[in-house]
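Anyone? Bumping this.
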Amino acid sequence: MSDAFPDAPAGAALLAVARQSLLDEVAPALSGRQRYVLLMAANAMGLVMREIAQAGAATEAWERALDGAGTPADLVAAIRAGRHDGDAALHAALVETTRIAAGIWKAPG
Amino acid sequence: MLDADQRTALCAWIGRTLEAGTVTLDDIRPLTGGSIQENWMLRCRVDGGERGFVLRKDAPATIASSRSRSEEFHIMRAAFAAGVRVPEPVGFCADPSVVGAPFALMGLVSGVGLGPRVVKDTSLGGDRAALAEQLGRELARTHGILRAGSPGAPADDLAFLGVPEPDPALAEIRTLRANLDGIGAVRPALEWGLRWAELHAPPCPEPVLVHRDFRTGNYMVDAEGLTAILDWEFAGWGDPVQDIGWFCAACWRFGRPDLEAGGIAPRAAFYRGYEAESGRGIDPEAVRYWEVMAHLRWAVIALEQGHRHVSGQETSLELALTGRMAPELEAAILRETAPERWGAR
C-alpha cells in the first residue's frame, strides 16, 4: 500500500486476520453446506491476499510475455496464426506468468 | 419446489409413462451436484409399490457445449440398450408446464459419486483395480454404439448428433477457440497449447459415441463396486481416445497423481478392461495427446463456468472460484507442450 494511505492494517493483512477469524471462530460451529461455503469464502480471501502480494510480479511477468507483441489479444492472434510455433522465449515467459497465477490460485506447497 | 397442481401433473405424467394406475409422490428433494442441471430425487408409490427416481432439468444458466435434457435422455437410452451401466431411462417430458421446464426421469441408483470421496474413501468401490477394469469395459461398450447406417447398427434415434467430424481433434480445437472467444477470454497459455494440439492432432480412424465427461466424479459406486455412469450431457461422435485421455488426465485424479486411472488405480487395470471389451489396442502417444486436450478443455469449461458469474448471469462463489483455477491447468499444459515437443508430428 502506498504511503498516501497509511492506515493499517492494509489490504492483505486485514483480509488475513478476517480470514483467520472465520476459520478459527466460525468454521468449527458449522457443518454441511454452511461449512463448505465458509471454507470456499476463506479460500477466496486467501486467493485475494496472494493476488495483492503478487500484483507487481504478475505485471512484470506479463510485460515480459508481451515483449513487442502488442496487446494480449494481439499475442493470441499471433499464436493462432503460427507466428510463435515452438518459440522458446515465449514459452518461458508464459511458464512464468502461469507459475505466478497458479500460485495465486493455490498457495505453493 | 412444486406446487400442488405441479405435483398432481407430475404424478399423472409418471402414471402415463409407466402405464400405471395410481402414482403418489411421497417425497421430493433437491440432489447436490450438477452445476449445469437441477436434479431432484423423487420417492413415489406406483400401483402400491415404492419406486425411486431422479428428475433432471436445466439449471438457470447452461454452458455452450452441454446438450439439452432431451438429447441427453436419448443418448442414455442408447447406452442403456448397449449394456452400459447407466440409470434406467424412464421417460422424457417435453411439456414445460409440468415442473416448469422439460425434464428427464431416470431410475434412482444408490451410491456415492463425489470425486474426492470416491478417491479417498477406499471402503467404497470394492477392489479398486477391478473397478478400473470395469470402467474400462463400460467405456468400451459406449464406444461400441454405432451410427445409423453403419453395418449392424440398429435403427437409432441419435440423428440429432449429426455427422461425425472427420477430424475430431481439430474440430475440438475449433470449438474451444470459439468458446474462448465467446466469453472474451484472452489466454495466451491456452492458445499456446491449442496451437500445439492443432499441429500434433492424431488421425481418428473411426468416430464412435464418446461420453466426453467420463471421469472420477461422474460415476457412482457403493461398497461393492460401480453402480452407474452419469452425466452424458456432453456426449457425441468423436475419437474414442478422447475419453481415455479425459479419464486418465492428471487434472482428474483428486489428490492421487500416482493412480493414473482417475485417481483410483494404475492405468494398466483400466486399459486391460477397455482392450478386452473393445478388442482394440490403446496407443499411449494418442492418449498422451488427449490428456493435453483434456487440460485444455477443462480449462475452457472452468473459464466458462467463471463467466456465468462474471457476466452476472448467475451469482455464485463456487462458479467464481472455478473460473480462477485455469492457471493451474495452463501450467500443466505448458509442461507437456514445451518447445522440444513441437518437433515430432
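Late reply, but here is one note on the structure posted above: DSSP finds eleven helices and nine strands in chain B.
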